[in-house]
Amino acid sequence: MDMREIPIGAKFAIIHRAFRRELDAMLREKGLTGAQFGVLKALDRLERERGGETSQRDLEELSRSSHPTMTEILKKLEKKGFIETCPSETDRRRKRIVQTEKARELGRETFAMDEETFARFSAGLDAVQTAQLGEMLDMLLENACGREKEGES
């Protein structure tokens, strides 16, 4: 089949699924599910953006998960050594959740895997084309995120 005949939306879907397969395989090797990885990414984001304490409630809100669901995910992540929980320094009734070095290493590995996958997928593009593709994708993301925000209003 001539790839030029595939509609652009289908091309994005095919590329997304290919990236997802690679990520899922890596997560399986680490004994993680997609939901657990999503919570780790949310925790990483909150730690970088806020710099302060992150609670279970913060993760529930960001992930749009119920309290029981998040409790189970956090228990499993703690058992696997990706997070630690301890009493909050500001409110002893709350638990503070922090990433371990194991979680940070996983983040570095997934970033490297993403770059390696992109390099494979973009084989044949020169440096200028790769930069242009990045710029175009940034524009598409900005437009897509703008649409999502408009829909939320």
Q: Which properties best describe this structure?
A:
mainly alpha, 2 domains, two-stranded antiparallel sheet, elongated, Arc Repressor Mutant, subunit A, 153 residues
Query: Overall 3D geometry?
Result: elongated
User: What is the oligomer described by this structure?
Assistant: single chain
The order of strands across the largest sheet is: 1-2
Number of helices: 6
**Radius of gyration from CA coordinates:** 19 Å
Order of helices and strands: HHHHEEHH
Helix content: over 70%
Unreliable parts: none
What does the largest sheet look like? 2 strands, antiparallel
Strand content: 5-15%
Structural class: mainly alpha
CATH topology of the largest domain: Arc Repressor Mutant, subunit A
Kindly state the number of beta strands.
2
CATH class of the largest domain: Mainly Alpha
Give the CATH H-level superfamily of the largest domain. Answer: Winged helix-like DNA-binding domain superfamily/Winged helix DNA-binding domain
CATH architecture descriptor name of the largest domain: Orthogonal Bundle
Q: What is this entry, summarized?
A:
The protein is built from six helices and two strands; from the N terminus they run H-H-H-H-E-E-H-H. It is mainly α. The chain is elongated and about 60 Å long.
Secondary-structure map:
Blueprint: H1 8-30, H2 34-50, H3 56-63, H4 67-79, E1 83-87, E2 95-99, H5 101-121, H6 127-152
Helix pairs in contact: 1-5, 2-3, 3-4
Describe this structure in words.
This protein folds into 2 domains: 34-113, Arc Repressor Mutant, subunit A (Orthogonal Bundle), CATH 1.10.10.10; 123-153. A hairpin with a 7-residue loop joins strand 1 (83-87) and strand 2. It has a two-stranded antiparallel ribbon. The termini are far apart. The chain is mainly alpha-helical. Helix content is 71%, strand content 7%.
